[in-house]
């Protein structure tokens, strides 16, 4: 998969998890809200790692 396409997929996953976390907060379902907040943070960390790797390869 092309790197840019992969980052776009991660962005979609981040948006989805964030929406689901906010929805769970509205319903006061705190266990689910925390689960999706953690998932959002994990996807964001993966995205940062991929972008860092891409930037390192571009500098070489």
The proportion of residues forming helix, as a percent range, comes to: over 70%
Give the terminus-to-terminus CA distance. 21 Å
- Count of domains: 1
DSSP strand content: under 5%
Tell me the number of helical segments per DSSP (H or I, 4 or more residues long).
2
Could you tell me the number of beta strands? Answer: 0
**Order of secondary-structure elements:** HH
Task: Determine Rg (CA atoms, Å).
Answer: 14 Å
Write down the overall mean pLDDT. 92
Question: What is shown here, in short?
Answer:
This protein has 60 residues and is mainly α.
Would you mind describing this structure in some detail?
The protein is mostly helical and 60 residues long. It has one domain (3-59). It is built from two helices and no strands. The protein has helices spanning 3-26, 30-59. The radius of gyration is 14 Å and the shape is elongated.
């Amino acid at each position: 998969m092309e790197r840019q396409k992969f980052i776009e997929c991660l962005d979609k996953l981040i948006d989805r998890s964030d929406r689901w976390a906010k929805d769970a907060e509205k319903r006061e379902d705190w266990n689910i809200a925390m689960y999706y907040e953690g998932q959002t943070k994990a996807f964001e960390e993966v995205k940062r790692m991929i972008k860092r790797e891409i930037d390192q390869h571009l500098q070489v």
